[in-house]
């Protein structure tokens, strides 16, 4: 049995979590998942400003902090912290934590190969809209194929203490140590599927252990000390989901179910580079407090295609807000919204979208929520998005004037003018897996 | 009788591009048939008509007494494009808990 823990569910997750996973009990591997779809866009913006960036900057200092623990306990780290610049990430770790062996997994970055793919007749059509890539090809900022677990497992063979990848399937982080330690082969489809399910359960960190859980959340103990998830994987693909004893939160079949269903499509076809896992075959049993056994997982061979995550520049946006207060807070906010919209129109500004929300009334649940009767305050939150920077910039000047020139009772404009942000949009596509050649670089 | 979904199930929602998904999990296995009968994709789409373009796909997970809904065109462009507070659909699952379902009292007690 090996213990694989995940200490980050996204870049921005609790900094103490990985440290506590190392301190509070035994683990063999520590995985850290930094990359959400939006994270790649953020990293792209950072690399645009500084070509030496584009990776999760929290990661190298974290490794420096836990390096003595890693050595003492023989724990190895597998992380996708490399983002769009894994080599720079690896070099920074080497600088901050000298003496650790670092293996960097490369080959996911295909931005420079897009013309080659298009020439070969690959459409790189948008998986959601089916539109071909060609019309936006000049606006591409980054393109990364989702690597599977085998290149990461190969990186572990080098004896590296820390494996850093760029874009890989989130579940590959957990699957790689299992492949490495148990010798699972590419043809062991059901074992790989079990690893994929395990990886999916832990990839969002504490969302498997009581975080963001609707299950009796009021009685969840000690969320401030929540234990991040640990998978105890058996060589035959049966595993337990648990957390260190004495930590906060809860692991039971319902918290695990919530996470199993998180951000999935067809549960019978959970597609990864290494296999297609069938979530309808998963059997969960509460075997002990804070311990759920997972077995029965079946899978199917992979599709032969890899997902490519493409980021492209898609204009500009800004969001401004004002708070209106009782009495008639909602009516005032609605009147202010009408005023802004008329002023934008009379200025002749062009936007692809203007979106208004009344926070406290309809921002999150829309018409599903019954309207409150005369609430003490309502926030008008109005955003615009468009291709013309100057128009979006002009919009940002139209919020504050309402304080003096609109309905009474406006406040909460302390942030002054909203910022104009570049929209980096996401374009998922497919590429034949044979086109992608992962490789490992060991930093001494 | 009318019963709010919150009494029968819990949910978690999230995003994939401009699509959102909502996992609906029966609190008790005996509630699962009610969910299957009442939570049709058409009803879910109608419930979110002001913010989801659709269509809505429904997938059953009898092994977990759960249903997964995929809501297409649900997030105003999704991710970094969307202007919404809930650009990643995190609140849609809780919103669905408000839905009133037609339930025979005997279905709850047996």
Give your account of this protein's structure.
The complex is a heterodimer of chains A (444) and B (110). Chain A is built from twelve helices and 19 strands. Chain A is of the alpha+beta class. Chain A folds into two domains: 2-108 and 146-303, no CATH class; 310-425, Alpha-Beta Plaits, CATH 3.30.70. A ten-stranded mixed beta sheet of chain A has the order 11-12-8-7-1-2-3-6-4-19, sandwiched between helices. In chain A, strands 5, 14, 15, 16, 17 and 18 form a six-stranded antiparallel beta sheet that branches. In chain A, helix 3 (59-73) crosses helix 4 (86-96), helix 6 crosses helix 7 (172-182) and helix 7 (172-182) packs across helix 8. The relative contact order of chain A is 0.14. The radius of gyration of chain B is 14 Å and the shape is elongated. Chain B is α+β, with helices and mostly antiparallel strands and 110 residues long. The mean pLDDT of chain B is 96. Chain B has a single domain (2-77, 89-104), classed as 2-Layer Sandwich (Alpha-Beta Plaits), CATH 3.30.70. Classes of the chains: A alpha+beta (444), B alpha+beta (110).
